[in-house]
Design a protein that fits this description.
This protein has 124 residues and is an all-alpha fold. It has a domain of 59 residues. Helices cover 61% and strands 0% of the residues. The chain is built from four helices and no strands.
């Protein structure tokens, strides 16, 4: 059994050895940079790094972004169904239509719930 995994173990050892040798050689042969206060400061696209790092955003931005991602992923689930819809109902079967109607109903319920909770209201 171990003879079957011998090439895998050899490849793992070669990868670890290559990484170790590369890092060691870069430390030994690479130039060490001189440090000073200006070069060690953060570069902010040409602006002086003065003040707070990032402005504060309202939680509403993140909430709307999460809702967008959730509903966008649901549309991704609907697309393959829509592409195959003609083949699914070719035999006169209504189950695919009813299953997607249930899925869309749950989505509509979630959307109405988000609206009632004020998730999309910017005034609060």
């Amino acid at each position: 059994m171990s003879s079957q995994f011998l090439p895998v173990f050899v490849q793992i050892l070669v990868a670890i050895g290559f990484a170790a040798v590369s890092l060691t050689l870069s430390v030994l042969l690479g130039k060490s940079a001189r440090t000073n206060k200006i070069k060690d400061s953060a570069y902010e696209c040409g602006m002086l790094p003065i003040g707070e790092g990032a402005p504060r955003f309202s939680v509403k931005f993140y909430l709307v972004a999460m809702l967008f991602v959730i509903f966008d992923i649901e549309v991704v689930f609907m697309y393959p169904w829509a592409v195959q819809f003609r083949d699914l109902v070719a035999g006169g079967n209504a189950v695919p239509l009813l299953s997607m109607a249930g899925f869309a109903g749950i989505l509509a319920f979630a959307y109405v719930y988000a609206l009632k909770k004020g998730a999309l209201s910017w005034r609060n």
